[in-house]
Write a structure and sequence with these properties.
Radius of gyration: 17 Å
Strand content: 15-25%
Oligomer: single chain
Order of helices and strands: EHEHHEHEHEHEHEEE
Number of helices: 7
Number of strands: 9
Helix content: 25-40%
Largest sheet: 9 strands, mixed
Length: 230
């Protein structure tokens, strides 16, 4: 049985812990220098995962933007972009979303086992649909990605995905960027939701790096013994 991937969570949030505001437009929580840093992290990963809600809300492309980094991946014998992965219970996804239509990387959709047939009819040739359990279990997702050769997985959100990977004890590293403002609206999505997290007052996460990047700050946490050995 293959080892599960090294799992890195990447997130930007406001000072008060929100991923976005409650408006329809996307709230930018970072700056150009940090976006380039995230692009470099993406380029070192085998797969990038976002929840279905992030696809519906933000319509991300999940591509490596830098031509030089894409070329470096190809020189290493890899595809220009990491595999794209999403997790959904209902598979309420638009097959014309940028997740499916941009880039030549493989697209994997883990959905509730009971919805697999409907999901395959909906997505057709746009993606590979995989049964993830009822409800979808991120442990199943991580194990299957390992079997598919994914050694390093980057989870980019949203809050439900971060919560599930953290509470399952699957996260090896957290890269958390804090923007210099408040959202102040409880209707907005938060970084994490309620759950039983392995890190609490009696088991504090290990902070390994603090870096100012323009007007934002990067906090990097080691969450498992695998940190630094991926």
């Amino acid at each position: 049985m293959a080892e599960r991937p090294y799992i890195l969570l990447s997130c930007g949030m406001s000072i008060d812990g929100y991923l976005d505001d409650a408006t329809e437009g996307r709230l930018l929580l970072s700056n150009d220098a940090d976006f380039d840093r995230v692009d470099a992290v993406r380029a070192e990963c085998d797969a990038i995962l976002v929840g279905a809600g992030t696809i519906r809300q933000d319509n991300p492309r999940l591509l490596v933007r830098s031509a030089d980094r894409r070329a470096e991946r190809v020189a290493r014998g890899e595809a220009p972009d990491p595999v794209k992965v999403t997790v959904t219970g209902s598979c309420h996804l638009d097959p014309e979303a940028s997740f499916f239509t941009t880039g030549a990387a493989d697209k994997l959709v883990y959905c509730a086992t009971s919805t697999v047939d409907d999901a395959r009819k909906l997505l057709g040739e746009h993606a590979t649909v995989i049964a993830g359990g009822d409800p979808v279990d991120v442990r199943v997702v991580a194990a299957d990605l390992g079997e598919r050769g994914v050694r390093r997985l980057m989870v980019e959100g949203g809050g439900h995905m971060h919560t599930q990977f953290l509470t399952a004890g699957l996260a090896d590293e957290l890269q958390l960027v804090v923007a210099p403002f408040f959202v102040g609206d409880s209707r907005a999505p938060r970084f994490v939701h309620d759950g039983a997290f392995p890190w609490g007052p009696d088991n504090r996460a290990r902070l390994v790096e603090v870096r100012q990047i323009g007007d934002v700050v990067l906090l990097r946490y080691a969450l498992s013994e695998r940190f630094g050995h991926d």
